[in-house]
Design a protein that fits this description.
about 70 residues; mainly alpha; 3 helices
Length: about 70
């Protein structure tokens, strides 16, 4: 659970980068996934936990951004 929670801010940052330009979010996503999958290949640390936290961060920030947009 700690690892999932640790990676939520990375997902939030990724979603926030969409406000600047979608390509920044894409680059961060590709870099994060590349890093995690490479780390898992060498350490066998079950990277899906980290990737799940990243996805939760994107989802939570995305919902927050949608709500803020709806309120404006």
């Amino acid at each position: 659970m700690k690892r999932l929670l640790l990676h939520i801010p990375v997902g939030v940052a990724c979603a926030a980068l969409v406000l600047a330009h979608w390509s920044l979010a894409l680059v961060l996503t590709i870099a994060f996934l590349t890093y995690e999958l490479n780390q898992d290949r060498h350490k066998k640390d079950r990277a899906f936990k980290d990737i799940a936290g990243f996805a939760w961060g994107i989802a939570l920030a995305g919902i927050a951004l949608l709500v803020l947009r709806a309120l404006n």
